[in-house]
Design a protein that fits this description.
This protein has 108 residues and is of the alpha+beta class. The chain contains 2 helices and 6 strands. It has one domain (8-105). It has helices at residues 8-15, 94-105; strands spanning 30-33, 39-42, 48-52, 55-59, 66-75, 79-90. A 4-stranded antiparallel sheet has the order 3-4-5-6. A two-stranded antiparallel ribbon has the order 1-2. It is globular. The model has no long low-confidence stretch (mean pLDDT 95). Bound molecules: zinc ion. Zinc ion (ZN) binds at residues 34, 36, 38, 40, 60, 62, 66. Zinc ion is lined by residues 34, 36, 38, 40, 60, 62, 66.
């Protein structure tokens, strides 16, 4: 299913209160729909930019200018039920991408 691409402010809103990634993501496996239009398998090779409430921003492994806000679906917070992409963002220029990274780097 295609991920809806938002402008940066809308994308940041979709994350909510963001912190540096700190969840143990190694327990989650599966594919996620990426903002680039493809689907990728999640694994340690996928960079995470930030973490919200049961959601993380994943960087596209093929094109780092695409990022996707991905919800972690669970049953009663225990059983992993897969990834659900909430929204995507595409940095149209390297300058915009650098600016976005500096926003995420300032997170605690
Ligand atoms: Zn991708």
């Amino acid at each position: 299913m295609a991920v809806q691409l938002l402008k940066l402010d809308g994308f940041l809103q979709s994350i909510g209160t963001a912190i540096r990634p700190q969840m143990d993501m190694s327990i989650y496996h599966g594919a996620f729909d990426c903002a680039c239009g493809n689907s990728h398998a999640y694994g340690p090779h996928i960079d995470l930019l930030c973490e919200g409430s049961m959601r993380v921003v994943m960087v596209c492994p093929n094109d780092r200018s695409y990022m996707t806000n991905v919800a972690i679906k669970t049953f009663l917070l225990v059983k992993f039920r897969g990834f659900a992409s909430i929204a995507g963002w595409h940095a149209k220029t390297p300058e915009v991408l650098t600016a976005a990274h500096s926003v995420f780097n300032e997170l605690r």
